[in-house]
Amino acid sequence: MQLPGGIQYINKCIYLVIGLKKDGLKEVLGMWMAETESASFWMSVLTDLKARGVEDILIACTDNLKGFTDAIKGVFPQTVTQLCVVHQIRNSCKFVVWKDRKEFCADLKEVYGATNRDVAEQALVAFAAKWGTKYRHAIQSWENNRDNLTSYFEFPLEIRKIMYTTNTIENLNRGIRKYTKTKVQFTDDTAAQKAVYLAIMNIEKKWSMTLHNWGIILHQFLTIFEKRCRL
């Protein structure tokens, strides 16, 4: 936006990556700023993480940002990628009229809440047969992304709970907005990044509890990933 006097406002986004430490505590691994996202941008983010010492990513859950999944596979090819199911449900419901939404969501729960991938596939077929004509775009989104939406079925229930959604980072974003909501304009990128960084530092102080059932989850990681999971 160009204002009188040559002042220009530019909208930029800050992107965050959260990881789990070996003690079960959350940790912000990095912060990046950009005007737009793209596969090349995410490639640079992941390359940056690798250059800073991240040797491997076992599981990555994303909200289907443009090119992110492909970029992960390009830098960490062994990573299991999972799209956020909560985001997928929310996006699907945008196509559904209010009077159908309750029934639509109940039927959809049979897909993402299935006991395993085979049952989920059968439920998706039934779901598409019932709603496909009326809400074709909503169904296509699940069908086109089925592989990355069903990765969590390969894992025990305890791991499924921490990989099926990006709610952790959504909670972090809400926390950051509480600190920055009184100031939405910054003189430059550095000022904005400093404000977000300070907010993250305050939030991380509250991350003092390990994940529920972390001992069981850690044992499952060591069993499933064997040589890739080192303590």
Structural features, described:
- It is a single chain.
- With 231 residues, the protein is mainly alpha-helical.
- It is built from 11 helices and 4 strands.
- The strands form 2 sheets. A two-stranded antiparallel ribbon has the order 1-2. Strands 3-4 form a two-stranded parallel sheet.
- The longest helix is centred in the C-terminal third of the chain and has 16 residues, at 189-204.
Q: Measured on Cα atoms, how large is the radius of gyration?
A: 20 Å
What is the overall silhouette? Answer: globular
How many helices?
A: 11
Which architecture of the largest domain does the CATH hierarchy give at level 2? 2-Layer Sandwich
The biggest beta sheet is recorded as: 2 strands, antiparallel
SSE ordering:
EEHEHEHHHHHHHHH
Give the integer mean of the pLDDT values: 90
- Report the span from N to C terminus: 50 Å
Structural class: mainly alpha
Low-confidence region ranges:
none
